[in-house]
Design goal:
It contains 7 helices and 21 strands. The protein has helices at about 20-35, 60-65, 75-85, 110-120, 190-195, 280-285, 295-300, and strands at about 1-5, 10-15, 40-45, 55, 70-75, 90-95, 105, 125-130, 130-135, 140-145, 150-155, 160-170, 170-180, 180-185, 205-215, 225, 230-235, 245, 250-255, 260-265, 270-275.
Length: about 300
């Protein structure tokens, strides 16, 4: 879903301090912001990486003080930034300093133009859904978590199968053995879900994707369900070490008998997008859609 944008007067910087490209990139937009009368702030994680002229704030203070956050790095950095933003709705722009960059789809070479467009309000907000999970143990709520890309249940580093049962709106799909299950948003459909054989889903489709990981049954295949479906996972036997992981970052240890409820979260993430940045353009560039033409294969 696209929503209208406003001119930006205060920009927050979030990023991976290990990226050598980050300091010069931030310094270049610092000069631009000064010329445009825009205030620039940085996350405290970057205190030792940036010029002392840029004020440094804690993550909580940063989110409260800015109109938009720019994340420098790869998709992992974007996912961490989305967690920092929490439920605030502050828009998030990703500048790609990594490799694939499905979320950070603005290349470093377009940084200057992107910041100018931000300042002038020449952008739109693309709202992305999150997936939410409640974990129940012995009938009591044990843990909650959410993710922009995916929530994954597996055995972590232990290569053992889980004995599980998937239930959709109270209707069991049956027990099965497997390495785990990926519960993904459309945004996360190009992440672990895609590697596990799940489908690519347009980011605007209101749904959840459920992809079993290496199931010991040919009939247990990836599913796309409506966003209001009550999706449950029962863990009948986990052994030791089963985990629930949010966006590959935050982990909860699970146990035999745990019941997990998955649904679309109430609060969304607002991603900054520009007119030329479309879902299909990103897929074309990142997945290299459109292979060689017949003329190209013939070498003529």
């Amino acid at each position: 879903m696209k929503t209208a944008s406003l001119k930006v007067h205060r920009i927050g910087i979030f990023g991976n301090p290990l990226k050598t490209e980050l300091p010069p990139a931030v310094q270049s937009i610092s000069s631009l912001c000064e010329e445009q009368g825009v205030k620039l702030f940085a996350s405290s994680d970057l205190a030792g990486s940036l010029s002392r002229d840029i004020p440094v704030l804690s993550n909580d203070d940063l989110v409260e003080s800015v109109d938009v956050v720019i994340a420098f790095g790869g998709d992992g950095t974007m996912l961490r930034a989305a967690r920092v933003l929490g439920l605030t709705g502050v828009p998030l722009l990703g500048i790609n300093l990594g490799s694939l960059g499905y979320l950070t789809d603005v290349p470093l070479g377009e940084l200057h133009q992107a910041v100018l467009a931000l300042i002038e309000g020449d952008y739109h907000l693309d709202t992305r859904s999150r997936v939410y999970c409640n974990v129940f143990r012995d009938g009591q709520l044990f843990a909650t978590t959410n993710a922009l890309n995916d929530l994954v249940v597996n055995m972590g580093p232990l290569p053992r199968a889980l004995d599980m049962e998937l239930i959709m709106d109270g209707d069991s799909l049956g027990k099965f053995l497997g390495d785990g299950v990926i519960f993904s948003t459309p945004t996360g459909s190009t992440a672990y879900n895609l590697s596990a054989g799940g489908p690519i889903c347009h980011s605007a489709v209101p749904c959840l994707l459920v992809a079993p990981i290496c199931p010991h049954s040919l009939g247990m295949r990836p599913l796309i369900v409506s966003c209001d479906t009550m999706v449950e996972l029962l863990l009948h036997e986990t052994g030791e070490g089963a985990v629930l992981t949010a966006d590959g970052q935050k982990t909860h240890i699970l146990a035999n008998g745990d019941r997990l409820e998955f649904r679309e979260a109430d609060h969304e993430v607002n991603l900054v997008k520009f007119p030329h940045s479309t879902f299909y353009r990103v897929m074309r560039h990142k997945l290299h859609w459109g292979g060689p033409t017949r003329r190209g294969r013939m070498g003529s």
